[in-house]
Design goal:
Mean pLDDT: 83
Helix content: 10-25%
Order of helices and strands: EEEEEEEEEEEEEEEEEEEEEEEHHEHH
Radius of gyration: 22 Å
Number of strands: 24
Number of helices: 4
Structural class: alpha/beta
Strand content: over 45%
């Protein structure tokens, strides 16, 4: 077991056959890099417990592009990018969450916006509460979501889309797309601009049949609830009031991550110094500062203060 507080920096081995397990309370960025070790840097604390790294505070983790990363819990903005040969598992957390350039993704029990970009092989989303955006659709996408969903399928041939959504859904496909399967929605199904005619159609259900289902976009979409309508086509009906702008998980998220990690880890390649925890017999004043630091980091993770405000508060504690 290792325990580190203050500015911490650690390198640990990772293996293709076993997951690199992390639990984070605070903003976190996981990024691929060319190497065989996982490198963790942050402000707060890090402790290893039977193979699980528990991290408190803003953290950056670098892992090989083939790594199997398992996030067993997170609280705060999470961005994972650059694992084109690897996979990401998230078991529970509070978003927002963005995964970009990852081979396979499995996310469950997350509250908050979820954005997937350039996930190539497969994506499974379970028990997601909040808006979801997927661009483009991976080879297979399965999702159980309470909230609006947007999926972009510029190359739909041979892909599979299975959604169970409580809320509205928009699926963008080209006009010449070949479709196979069905869409059901309590609030209605809107189809416009697709050349292929449905095999059967009603206000709340549309079904297509392709001569070769394996080369078509296979659809199995069910939307329920008072706002459960599904729109599919080259320009699906706008649902901005429901989905809002999820171009990059919101500008606030991008600004926070860029500003935070730029200041913490952008010091000309210098590695933050590792501080070993003080003895258990710390003073009450030291314990109070630790508690105050954690409150500041928690407020930052919850979006109650900006990165700049958190930095000033943390500096005031030194």
């Amino acid at each position: 077991m290792g325990w580190f507080t203050g500015n911490f920096s650690r390198e640990v081995p990772v293996h293709r056959e076993t997951p690199f397990r992390i639990q984070v309370n605070g903003p976190c960025k996981v990024q691929g890099y060319q190497g065989n070790m996982a490198r963790m840097r942050g402000v707060g604390s890090a402790v290893e417990r039977e193979g699980l790294w528990v991290l408190q505070g803003p953290t950056k983790v670098e892992a090989p592009p083939w790594a199997w990363v398992r996030m067993e819990a997170f609280d705060g903005p999470l961005k994972v990018v650059g694992l084109p040969e690897g996979r990401l598992e998230v078991q529970k957390g509070h978003g927002p969450l963005k995964a970009q350039e990852v081979r396979a993704v499995h996310i469950q029990g997350v509250s908050g916006p979820v954005v997937l970009e350039d996930v190539t092989e497969s994506a499974t989303l379970e028990n997601i509460r909040g808006p979801v955006k997927v661009n483009p659709c991976p080879g297979a996408l399965e999702a159980q979501v309470t909230g609006p969903v947007k999926v972009y399928c510029p190359e739909p041939a041979g892909r599979r889309l299975a959604l169970r959504v409580r809320g509205p859904v928009a699926v963008q496909v080209p006009a010449e797309a070949r479709l196979h399967g069905r869409i059901q929605a309590e609030g209605g199904v809107h189809v416009e601009g697709i050349h292929q005619q449905p095999a059967a159609q009603s206000p709340t259900e549309v079904r297509w049949e392709a001569a070769d289902p394996e080369t078509a976009l296979q659809l199995d979409i069910v939307a329920q609830g008072p706002k459960a309508r599904v729109s599919i086509g080259p320009a699906p009906a706008a649902m901005d009031a429901d989905v809002a702008d999820m171009t990059d998980l919101g500008l606030g998220f991008a600004r926070t991550m860029t500003a935070l990690f730029g200041r913490l880890f952008g010091g000309g390649g210098k590695t933050a110094r590792t501080k070993t925890a003080t003895s258990p017999a710390r003073s009450r004043g030291s314990e109070s500062m630790d508690e105050a630091r954690q409150r500041i980091l928690h407020m930052l993770a919850q979006g109650k203060i900006t990165a700049e405000e958190a930095e000033r508060l943390l500096q005031a504690l030194e």
